[in-house]
Amino acid sequence: ENIGNNLYEQGEYAHASKAYQQSVLVLDEAKRYGAAADRLLKVARTEYELGNDAAALEFYQQALTKFSAANNKRSLGYTLHNIANIYYGQGDYAQALRHYQMILKAEEAAGTRDGAASAWQGIGQVHSLNGNYRLALNAYQENLKIVRALANKADEAAALQRVAGAHFVLAEYPQALDIYRAALVLRQELNDQQDTAAALLDVGMTLAA
C-alpha cells in the first residue's frame, strides 16, 4: 500500500493503480476481504484520476460487493456516493438517481444523517436536471430537515437556497422569497460577504419576478 500511496502522491497514477491492484490480490489471498475492499477504493480513485470512468466504476462495484458481504454500511454508503457522482458527471441521470436512492437507503440504515442529507441533495439535483421540479423540491425539503438537525448554519443556508430555487422555478414566488430571506439572515450571521451578496441577489431577483 505504501508504494501505491507514494506513487499516487507523486502523480504517478497508472503505476499507483497497478501497485494497489497487486495489493488487492495479496489481501484476497490472505482472506483479508475488508482491507481488500478498502484498497479497491484506492484503485477506483486512481483510475478516476486517470480519466478511466469505466474502470473506476468496475473497481467501485467490486468494493461494493465486498462491503455488502461484510455488511459494512458506512463504507457501502461512501462507495455508492462515488459511483453516483461518476454517473452524474457523465450525464447518466437515470443511473445517478438509482444510486442516490441506494445511498439514501444505506445511509439511513447506518444512521448517518450527513450521508442521508447528501443523498437527498443528489436526488434533488437529478430531478431538477430532468425538469421534475416538484420532485426536486420534495427532495430538497428532506435535505433541509436533516441539515437543520445537524445545526450547521452554512449548510442550512445552502439547503434553504436550494429549496427557494425550486419554488422559484415553480413560479411560487412568495414561498421562494420567504426562504431566500431566511437564507440571507444565516449568510449575514456567518459574515461571509460573497455568500451574503449572492443571497441578496436571490432576494432581489425574486422581488423582481
Notes on the protein architecture:
The chain has 209 residues and is mostly helical. The protein is 86% helix and 0% strand. The chain contains 11 helices and no strands. The chain has helices at 2-9, 13-29, 33-49, 53-69, 73-90, 93-110, 113-129, 133-150, 153-169, 173-190, 193-207. Helix 3 runs antiparallel to helix 4 (53-69), helix 5 (73-90) packs antiparallel against helix 6 (93-110) and helix 10 (173-190) packs antiparallel against helix 11 (193-207). The protein is elongated, with a radius of gyration of 20 Å. The model has no long low-confidence stretch (mean pLDDT 94).
Rg of Cα set: 20 Å
Main β sheet profile: none
**What low-confidence regions span 5 or more consecutive residues with pLDDT below 50?**
none
Q: Structural class of the secondary structure composition? A: mainly alpha
Residue share in helices?
over 70%
Helices, by number, come to 11
Question: Which band does the percent of strand residues land in?
Answer: under 5%
Which term fits the overall shape? Answer: elongated
Q: N-to-C terminal Cα separation, in Å? A: 57 Å
Task: Provide the residue-averaged pLDDT.
Answer: 94
Number of strands: 0
The succession of helices and strands, N to C, reads HHHHHHHHHHH
